[in-house]
Design goal:
Helix content of chain B: 55-70%
Strand content of chain A: under 5%
Structural class of chain B: mainly alpha
Distance between the termini of chain A: 42 Å
Oligomer: heterodimer
Largest interface: A-B, 20 and 19 residues
Radius of gyration of chain A: 16 Å
Number of domains of chain A: 1
Strand content of chain B: under 5%
Radius of gyration of chain B: 17 Å
Shape of chain B: globular
Number of helices of chain B: 11
Amino acid sequence: MAEQWTLADQAANPDPEMGLRSVRALRDLAERLEVLQVANARRSGWSWQEIANVLRVTRQAVHKKHRDIG
Amino acid sequence: MMFERFSRQARSAVVLAQEEARDLHSERIKAGHLLLALASDKEVAAAFADVGCEVANLRGRVARDSDQEFDTEALASLGIDIDRVRASVELHFGEGALDRPARRWRGGHIPFHRSAKKSLECSLREAVWWGSKDIDVWHMLLGVIRAEPSTVDDLIGADRAHERLRQTALRKLSERAA
């Protein structure tokens, strides 16, 4: 519950510094998780199209970004 | 660098600094990690305590000063505990999975930030000045103080801390020389 309050407070944090930092921090974390999860999906036999559908991007976009994973 | 001149304690302080940097998920070994490592020496820890700095508080401030890939504080403000995320990711994908790939490939070796590099160079100069063939923990403390006086004040968390610690280090080295 306490954590939800924090999220509710900070999502609209009026301090631009902390507000912007939280946006960047989420983006950094999402980027790292994307690399791990796309690689995992490929290892599990998912096609680029299937991955793209879930990430809601085009197949070309996901392939271009992650093709070095294989 | 010039590690052959480091005494056993000073050498282990450099190794410890690397471990502190790794534990705090810092991308570089900074002057603060050296301070933290020096605090594992009982006499240095006592000197820090004399100016009102406990090791646990020092570690907290060094953690905030670390060059972390993820902005822990900002994530915490959103209710995200990065350590829990890390633990869960590592459970499925192996140790260090959340770290930047480049760092994993380097086998956990963490490069020195310029603040630590400069501190170590100044440590060597202190040892030379004192006519010592080895660099010991007090030379290292003097080196960090010489290289990064305001960082020392911030991390130790006391006004003019670097000046008071310098006096202590000079006294210890003089006693040893006598």
